[in-house]
Structures are given as structure tokens and as C-alpha cells.
Amino acid sequence: xxxxxxxxxxxxxxxxxxxxxxxxxxxxxxxxxxxxxxxxxxxxxxxxxxxxxxxxxxxxxxxxxxxxxxxxxxxxxxxxxxxxxxxxxxxxxxxxxxxxxxxxxxxxxxxxxxxxxxxxxxxxxxxxxxxxxxxxxxxxxxx
Length: 143
Prior knowledge:
There is one protein chain. The chain has 143 residues and is mostly helical. The protein is 67% helix and 0% strand. The chain contains 7 helices and no strands. Helix 4 (72-86) packs across helix 6. The radius of gyration is 15 Å and the shape is globular.
């Protein structure tokens, strides 16, 4: 196996892990809404998830562990995707917020400020901001 094959495999596993985490959020209320399904379909394409992998992950989303990114900006990008999934049906229940908090901790955000981070992320999603605005606001929320 070549070095590039190892890199490609690690990249693919990270994408599956990220997609799996988002599927868990989507299924947290027991059903998959049309908005959530549409978001998952688009995200699967972006993350290069095959149809077979998509179906496998939908069937058993706990199969892949959360792989927290090292870089803060990558964690924010994943938080953005997860937050969008939580808010995809425009209903924010306590269970969805709780799951987003758990995944945020899994992404490497510290317990002391995770509630503040989750609240800020969800408030930005209510405003329907894009990724660039989300990244800027999250990086400058304490200023």
C-alpha cells in the first residue's frame, strides 16, 4: 500500500465519521424529515460518500467514531454542518441541542464554554448565515 493510499483512506474515514455524526443528529428525534434528507443527500456528495456507504451509515450511524479535527477552523466547519442539521427542520428541541452539545465536546470544544459555543452556533443558524459568516462570528464571538 502506498503512502497516498493511506492518506486517501484516512481522508475517506474522516468523511464517513463526520457524515455518521450528522446522521446521528438527524435521527435523534426518531425520524428523518424531508429537509434533513435533502441536506444529507447534498452532504454525502460533498463528502464523497457512495450510495452503499450512505445506506450503511443510515442503517448503523454509530459504526464510525467521531474523529475530532486538529485545527480549530476545521472543528468550526464541522460544527456548522452539525448545527445546520439540527436546525434543518426549523425546530430546535432539547434533545437536538443536547446531542449537538455532546458532538461539540467530541469535536474538541472545552466543557467550560461548549454551552456558549452551541448557543452562538444555533443563533447564527436562525439568522441563516453562510459558512464564511459563521466562521467569522464564531472566531470573534468573545470580542
